[in-house]
Amino acid sequence: MASDHAVSSDPKRRHRHEGPQKHIVAFVLSLALTIIAFAAVAAGEINMTFTYIILVAMALLQVFVQLAFWMHLKDRGHLFATMGIVFGIIVVFTMVIMALYWVWW
Amino acid sequence: MKEDAALAAHAHTVKRYRGLMDWLTTVDHKKIGILYLIAGGLFFLVGGLEAILIRIQLIKPMNNFVGADTFNQLITMHGTTMIFLAAMPMLFALMNAVIPLQIGARDVAFPFLNSLGFWTFFAGGVLLNISWFAGDIPDAGWTSYVPLAGPTYAGGHGVDYYLMGLQIAGIGTLLGGINFMATIINMRAPGMSFMRMPMFTWAIFITSALIVFAFPVLTVGLVALTFDRLFQANFFETGNGGNTVLWEHVFWVFGHPEVYILILPAFGVISEVISAFSRKRLFGYSSMVFATVLIAFLGFMVWAHHMFTTGLGPVANGLFSIATMLIAVPTGVKIFNWLFTLWGGSISFTSASLFAIGFIPTFVMGGVTGVMLAVAPADFQYHDTYFVVAHFHYVIVGGLIFGIFSGLHYWWPKMFGRILNEKLGKATFWTFFIGFHLTFFIQHFLGLIGMPRRVWTYLPGQGFDTMNAVSTVGAFLMGIGTIIFIINVIVSAANKKPVANDPWEDGRSLEWSIPSPPPEYNFKQLPLVRSYDAWWNEKQKGNAEMPPAEPVGPIHMPSPSILPLIMSIGLFAAALGFMYHHTIIGIVGIVITFACMFTRSVFDDHGFHIEPEEQEKGVHA
Amino acid sequence: MSAHDHHLDGHLPHEPEKATLEGRNKILGFWLFLGAETVLFGTLFAAFIALRHQTLDGPTADHLFELPMVFAATMILLVSSLASVFAVQALHQHKVKPMIVWLIVTILLGLGFLGLEIYEFNTYVSEGHKFRTSAFSSSFYTLVGFHGAHVAFGVLWIGLLIAQIFKKGLTVVTAPKIYVSAIYWHFIDVVWVFIFTVVYLMGKVG
Question: Could you give the ipTM of this predicted complex?
Answer without folding.
Answer: 0.93
